[in-house]
Design goal:
25% strand; 5 helices; 5 strands; five-stranded mixed beta sheet; 32% helix; alpha+beta
Length: 150
C-alpha cells in the first residue's frame, strides 16, 4: 500500500467515485440527501491552504482510501493550527490489517509538518471507527448530532 498527500483537484474524478461508495455505505443519503460535492468550493479551500488530503493506493495505483482535513486556526487556542477531519474512508476489501491506521499515521506526520498542533477526528455511527482512534491515543471529547431543519 502506498500513502501520499495529493491535490484533490488533480484526483477529482477518483474522489467522486470513491465518495459515491462512502456516501452509500455510511447511509448519508438518508441524512444529508444525495451526494453533490462542490468542486469549486474544494478548489478554493485547497488553494487557500485550508484543505489537505492523503490517499491510500494499491501497487497498481488504484485509490482505495483517503483521509481529508480542514486546516484552521484553533478558536480555543489563539495562534495554534488545528486539523479537523472532513472524511476518512477505506474500501471494505482493504480494511484488514493496518491499512487504515497506516493511512492515519501518515496523515498525522504530514499535518505535523504543516504546523497542526491538534487533530480532531470524527466517527460516523454507520461505521464506527472509534477503536482505531483509541488505539492511536486520541481522546474521546464530544458527540455531534445533526438535524435537518426545513
Amino acid at each position: 500500500m502506498k500513502y501520499q498527500s495529493e491535490k484533490v483537484m488533480e484526483i477529482w474524478d477518483e474522489i467522486e467515485n470513491i465518495t459515491d461508495v462512502a456516501h452509500k455505505e455510511l447511509n448519508l443519503n438518508g441524512i444529508v440527501g444525495e451526494k453533490s460535492l462542490n468542486k469549486q468550493w474544494y478548489e478554493t479551500v485547497e488553494n487557500n491552504g485550508n484543505f489537505f488530503i492523503v490517499t491510500a493506493r494499491t501497487a497498481n495505483n488504484k485509490l482505495v482510501g483517503y483521509a481529508s482535513y480542514f486546516l484552521t486556526s484553533s478558536p480555543l487556542s489563539f495562534g495554534l493550527l488545528q486539523a479537523e477531519s472532513n472524511s476518512f474512508f477505506m474500501l471494505k476489501e482493504y480494511r484488514r490489517g493496518f491499512n487504515g491506521i497506516n493511512l492515519l499515521k501518515f496523515a498525522e506526520q504530514k499535518l505535523k509538518i504543516l504546523g497542526a498542533k491538534f487533530i480532531i477526528q470524527k466517527v460516523n455511527t454507520a461505521h464506527d471507527t472509534s477503536i482505531l482512534f483509541e488505539r492511536m491515543s486520541y481522546n474521546f471529547l464530544e458527540k455531534v448530532y445533526i438535524k435537518e431543519i426545513e
